[in-house]
Each structure stands twice: as C-alpha cells, then as structure tokens.
Amino acid sequence: MSRDKLEENRKMVRSITLSIMDLVKQRMDLVKQIGEIKQRLGLDVIDKHAEDELRENVIEFSKSKGLDTNFALRLLSILVDESRKIQSKSIKNGVTPTQIFTKAKELEEQGRKIIHLEVGEPDLDPPNIVKEAVIEAIDKKRYRYTEPAGIRELRDAIKKHLNLEHNNIMITPGGRFGIYLAISLLNEGEEVIVIDPSWPAYKDCAKLANVNTRVIRTDLDNNWNVDIEELHNAINDNTKMLILNYPNNPTGKILDDNTIRSIVEIAKDNNLLILSDEVYSYYSFKEFTSIKDYDVDYILISSFSKAYSMTGFRVGFAASNNPNIIKRMVKHQAVALTSVAEPMQYAALKALNEDHHIYAKIMRERLAFLAKRLEDMNLSFYKPDGGMYIFARVNKDGFDAQEFAYKMLEEGLAITPGTAFGDYKNYLRISACNDINVLEEGLNILERFVR
Ligand code: PLP
Q: Is the CB of 303 under 6 A from ligand 1?
C-alpha cells in the first residue's frame, strides 16, 4: 500500500516538475520578446522597477501559500538572471578594452602603426631593485611552492605598509584574482551592487559565479557622485556585497569622506560586505581614505601592478577585518593555483621599500596634459582626483562610442569606448600610460575626428 502511494506521489512530482519546466519555457519566450521590444525602444535590459514589483508579488504570493520566502526569492533570482542573459544576447554587447587591444594588435601585425591610448598599464619600468630581486630570489633557490596565502615576510610587510592591526592578508596573482575570489564567496543567485561606470571584470566575475549584478549609475553631470538614496533603494534581501573602486577606473573620481560614511552606514544596516578595489590608491592626487579606516566589514583589494608598474609580475593582495573571509579565499586559491610564484613574491617584498610617488607624479603631469588638450576639443570630463585615465564625453547627439573607437583604430589610434564600462555611449576612456609625445600624437588624431 505505502509502496503504491510512493509511486503515485513520485508520478505526480514528475508531472508537476515538467509543468514547471513548461511554464519556464513559456516565460523565457515572453522574456525574449520583451528584450526585442526593449531594443527597438532603446531601453536598458535591466528594468529595476519591473524587477522590484515582481519581487514584491513573489514575496506576497509565497507568504499566502506558506512557501519559504527565501527559497522563493532564490528561484526568482535564477529566473531574473536568466532573463537578463536572454535579453542581453539580443542587445549589442559593450566592447571590452581587451577586444580593442586585440584588434589593434591584429592591425599592427599587418604593418599598421597604432597609438595605444586604450591600455591600462603604466609604460614605466618597475624599480631596478625589483628586477634584481627576481634574480636574487632565483639564485637563492626561492622558486618553490609557498604557503597558499603567500610568504610570511610579504604578508608582514603589507601589514606594516597598510598599518593594519590584524593579520588577515593573502597574496594573490594580481588584484584581479583577489576580486574574483571575493565575489566567488557569494552564493548563486545572491546579488552584488556595482557602481557604473565600472571596470568590466566585476560584472564578469559575478557572471562566472552565477551572482546577480545590480547596477547603480553615476553621471558626469553629478560629478560621478553616488546617489545614496538610489543605493539604499537598490538593496534587497539577496544583496550581499557592494563594490567600491576609488580612485575609479575610468572616471578618476575619489568619493569624499561624507559619502563613504553614508555608504558604510547603509552597508552596516544591511549586512553588506564592502569589496573595495584600491589598486589605484597609489595614484591619488587628493586625500584618499582606505576602507580599512572605516568601521565596516570589508575586503580590500590592492596590487603591485599599477603602484610599481609591475603588471606582468602578477602580484596583488587582499585584506579583510574578518579572518574567516580570508581563510575561505585562501582555500579557494589553494585549489585553483597552489600559490603565487615565489620569486615574484620576493620581488614584491623589495618593491615595498621603494618610493611609488614618482609614478604618481609622472601620471599626474600626463593627465594634466591630456586634460588641457581634451578641453580644447570641447569634450566634457571630470578632472581626475586619481588614477590613470580621463573619461571624456563627446557632446554630440547620437554619438556611438563603439563605432567611433573602431573608426579610430583604422586611423591608427586605440581608445576604449565608454560602453565597456556600462551604458555610456557618448564617452571615451583615454589612458595616460604613454609618454607625452605619444599622447600628443594620439590626441592629434582624435582631434581631427571629434571636432
Ligand atoms: N582593478 C581595476 C579597477 C583595474 O583597472 C585593474 C587592472 O586594470 C585591476 C583591478 C587589476 O589589476 P591587476 O590584476 O594587474 O592587479
């Protein structure tokens, strides 16, 4: 008897599951149609209002049916994420800086001369002492696996360098991997808030980890400030992390202390972890306060790449006031790559003795030069508080930055279109990672076409 009942129930569960799948298919077909309409009307894929309304409906419905609301929201999150993916496919994707770089390289292989104002790495040499340290490390046979968190000397030196009171530090192969590890701490279907314009890797890492991204847009007309109310409204039960990146790539903005304090309060009230990407902090032209100096749960990401012009050494680090977070990230790193190359960790250790301000001074002079020329071209932009770029707006209706960037490549100039960083069709990111003579040559080409 009970066996018969078991079989009967199983049959019903199977049939209900297939009905759910059928409904999901019907939902996806409709979502695709909505995506096509949005594209025709020039609307964004993400419609926060529609998503919030649906969420409220689901909460109400699950409560009335006695269904676990958290579970219902997780299911909804998977559906919404899939819908965004389906709709994004029908919309022209933003080109990445790497795609522009690859296309530029192709043209160079055909013998064309390209000026690279799209690159995100300083052209200057790392300090000599750093280069020598690699050879010294090899001579001393320091070319073995290390602890997954990195060699103790380097972690201690970073602790001192950052003035940290705790030991929760790990060495990562560049800041990028630290960001990937941090975002991977989140569970599938949870949400991370990204402030646009943003370095594309945040959204890419979230996608890889099946974590949803909720975007807060900032604008030049508001000096790239964060609207605190908008941030507050973007948070829901699924939101677990907020990413900050100041000095910002691409805008060069540093948020003021009051704004950061308001953000910190919101994060604390909502149990959000702040992931603060501070790789450009060494290129700050006004006061910059690290997230470690605020009273909030954080993961701080930094790197030797920009600070000491050591991009190819692939050494960065992550620190958190929560030891469990670093433990989990180290565990993941150990599985993925054992440890960062030992000679490079010793090189990074030497770098910490060097003065990084010389790099910042050069970059600042170049940015001033860029700013002057871009002003003469009637482009609008925020004068960078830090970083290595200017994010300039071309004040022409219907301007298509992506098309323009490809056209510029044909003219011998590589620049990154604003669409790489979010919905910024009128913007171009111009990098100061070249000698002033090269910058001038590139800007001469740009000027002929934006005027
Ligand atoms: N964060 C930002 C904002 C960046 O622009 C970059 C590199 O361009 C990185 C992190 C990562 O740099 P790396 O992995 O070389 O440390």
A: yes
pTM of the model: 0.84
* Alpha carbon nearest to ligand 1 atom 7, residue: 120
118 lines ligand 1 (CB under 6 A): no
Question: In whole angstroms, what is the distance from residue 360 CA to residue 168 CA?
Answer: 28
Q: Is the CB of 174 under 6 A from ligand 1?
A: yes
The CA 279 to ligand 1 mean position distance, Å, reads: 6
Tokens for 381, please give them. Answer: 């932009």
Q: Which atom of ligand 1 lies nearest, measured to the CA of 303?
A: 16
Rounded to whole angstroms, what are the CA distances from 426 to 130, 224, 383, 417, 448?
Answer: 41, 15, 17, 8, 17
Residue nearest to atom 12 of ligand 1 (CA): 175
Query: What does each of the 451 residues of the chain score in pLDDT, given as a tens digit?
Result: 688 999 999 999 999 999 999 999 999 999 999 988 876 666 677 787 888 899 999 999 999 999 999 899 989 988 988 898 888 765 555 677 778 888 888 899 999 999 999 988 999 999 999 999 999 999 999 999 999 999 999 999 999 999 998 899 999 999 999 999 999 999 988 999 999 999 999 999 999 998 989 999 999 999 999 999 999 999 988 899 999 999 999 999 999 999 999 999 999 999 999 999 999 999 999 999 999 999 999 999 999 999 999 999 999 999 999 999 999 999 999 999 999 999 999 999 999 988 888 899 999 999 999 999 999 999 999 999 999 999 999 999 889 999 999 999 999 999 999 999 999 999 999 999 999 999 999 999 999 998 7
Order the strands of the 316-320 sheet from edge to edge.
Answer: 169-172, 316-320, 298-303, 273-277, 239-244, 191-196, 212-217
Phi, psi of 165, deg, nearest 5: -95, -5
Helices (H), 196-315: 201-208, 228-234, 257-269, 304-307
Specify the residue for token string 């790489």.
420
- Contact at 8 Å (CB) between 417 and 401? yes
| Ligand 1 site, residue 279, Cβ cutoff 6 A | yes
Residue 39: beta bridge partners?
none
Q: Is 305 touching ligand 1 by the criterion CB < 6 Å?
A: yes
Would you say the CB of residue 249 lies under 6 angstroms from ligand 1?
Answer: yes
